[in-house]
Design goal:
The complex is a heterodimer of chains A (about 250) and B (about 240).
Chain A lengths: L1 H17 L8 H21 L4 H25 L7 H4 L7 H28 L11 H25 L2 H15 L21 H10 L9 H25 L3 H4 L1
Chain B lengths: L2 E14 L6 H9 L11 E15 L3 E5 L6 H9 L6 E7 L2 E4 L12 H11 L4 H6 L1 H8 L14 H14 L4 E4 L8 H16 L3 E5 L3 H7 L2 E6 L2 E5 L6
Helix pairs in contact in B: 3-6, 5-6
Classes of the chains: A mainly alpha (about 250), B alpha/beta (about 240).
């Protein structure tokens, strides 16, 4: 339990180190995303002939959830490799590094929440009972990101190509996920996005903010991915986890 | 009570060349059913420890000797629980602290103070407990104002002082040291010896890998010689 708390604290230290001597610090991320959201809103709202009032909030929340997912998965494969000197010199349970990496992403997410608050306030989004459903949504996404980081970290330590492979795949996953557009508002039927598991992750966090209850289907798929992924990760850790110190 | 029991421990570790680390070669290997296995995905397996058995109990101070590459560092890592054996059983009881590699686990951009807290917390202390280590470490390391500077500005001797002070500051029951006193000056050697003596006197386990027979004679009461991964105990008197 102490170690779990320590992982959270050290994630905060990591964040401070990352932005040492910069004035804005982690708010550079917030700033970068703000610019991204503004730019994409102007371009895509016009291209898709969408109403700013509904389009901007949807895009903003989609982007921020996507940042969390892509950031975590993109760095997942280097979770253990980056900590190689620690892993080879101090006996620390491996989940410690997973929690530490994931917490760093959550800290980034919290900085980005400022944009969400800004959008909710500016567009006067109705906060109602459904909005609370975003909370279990984000928890489900984080649980999924936990096993993904753990599994990718192990695989990435053994096979160094995984990191590049995942990062090559991420842009594709971005294009076939409903980050920019709303799936129900497209002129064409884009069923392909529902082959992308990340689409469901975005749906269950974003829909509550837009005053719709996420579909049962989204929850089922997310929970199914969680259970299968966790089971595979447990097997991977059980049979290969002992080798990690030799791999990094 | 601290204890380490090794029973017939064999440790092999794989060394992957760049091809063994590559996904393409792993796939080719599956696809070709292993016919050209010899040329792809080569991994060399080193048997670093061979059927090693021993029993360490409270008050044991062990000097590990052996030529370069004999397996001293590997044995220390296995004792610490970092490396897992291929066969045999290991029983370990007691809180372990290690100083194996200079600078391992330190964040070069952070100050000495921040690194003390980081290291302490990674060894399982709470934030308050880690903070409480500071006065004593200030005193022991004699680094003074340097503790406020980023660790990247430290010399290897200063880094060693800091790491040793944290590792022994958490009052471990098992202290594992790899050869490292070469970087410390005379004053540090004297102080560290006193600390090690305190740990041994508190009836704890101390294991120290070194090439310096005088140091081993000073610190230790048992001697293990490693040769090509095989371990043999020698009498401390016969050590030249």
């Amino acid at each position: 339990m102490t170690l779990f708390k320590n992982a959270l604290y050290l994630a905060w230290t990591d964040t401070k180190v990352r932005y040492k001597k910069s004035v804005l610090g982690p708010f550079w991320l917030t700033f970068g995303n703000l610019i991204g959201v503004l730019g994409l809103s102007v371009v895509w709202a016009n291209l898709l002939k969408e109403d700013m009032q509904t389009f901007v909030p949807s895009l903003t929340i989609g982007m921020i959830v996507w940042q969390l997912i892509a950031g975590t998965i993109g760095e997942g494969a280097t979770t253990f490799v980056r900590q190689a000197s620690l892993i080879r010199n101090v006996a620390i349970p491996h989940w410690f590094f997973v929690i530490r990496a994931l917490s760093r992403q959550i800290i980034n997410l919290l900085h980005n929440l400022i944009i969400v608050v800004g959008v909710v306030w500016y567009f006067d989004l109705p906060l109602q009972a459904e909005t609370w459903l975003a909370l279990p949504g984000i928890l489900l996404v984080l649980a999924n990101l936990f096993w993904m980081t753990y599994a990718l970290g192990l695989l990435g330590a053994r096979l160094r190509d995984i990191e590049f492979f995942v990062n090559a795949l991420l842009p594709l996953l971005f294009f076939i996920s409903p980050v920019i557009f709303r799936p129900d508002r497209l002129p064409v039927d884009l069923q392909i996005i529902w082959l992308n598991p990340l689409s469901y992750f975005i749906e269950i966090v974003r829909s509550p903010f837009l005053a719709t209850i996420p579909s049962m289907n989204s929850y089922l798929v997310t929970v199914a991915i969680l259970l299968v992924g966790m089971a595979l990760t447990v097997v991977l850790v059980k049979f290969k986890g002992r080798q990690l110190a030799f791999w990094v | 009570m601290a204890e380490i029991i090794f029973d017939n421990v064999t440790l092999r570790y794989p060394i992957f060349n760049s091809r063994g680390m590559s996904l393409r070669n792993q796939l080719v290997r599956i696809a070709t059913g292993g016919i050209i296995e010899s040329s792809v995905g080569q991994t060399t397996v080193v048997t670093a420890l061979k059927n090693v058995s021993f029993h360490l109990k409270d008050g044991d101070a062990v000097g590990l000797v052996g030529h370069n590459g004999a397996g001293k560092s590997t044995l220390l890592r296995t004792m610490a629980g970092i490396y897992q054996p291929a066969s045999g059983t290991i029983k370990r009881q007691g809180k372990v602290a290690t100083v194996l590699e200079i600078g391992a686990g330190l964040e070069p951009e952070l100050s000495g103070y921040d690194n003390i807290i980081n290291l302490g917390m990674m060894m399982g202390l709470s934030l308050e407990e880690a903070r409480a280590l500071i006065p004593e470490i200030e005193d022991f390391t004699e680094l003074g104002g340097f503790l406020q500077l980023p660790v990247r500005t430290y010399s290897s001797g200063m880094t060693m002082r800091l790491m040793f002070a944290v590792a022994t500051g958490i009052t471990p029951e098992i202290l594992l040291l790899d050869e490292m006193f070469s970087t410390g000056d005379a004053g540090f050697k004297e102080k560290s010896q006193a600390r090690i003596q305190k740990i041994i006197d508190a009836a704890k386990i101390f294991v120290f890998a070194s090439h310096d027979m005088n140091l081993i004679k000073n610190y230790c009461n048992r001697v293990f010689r490693l040769e090509h991964g095989s371990l043999e105990e020698e009498s401390i008197e016969t050590i030249a």
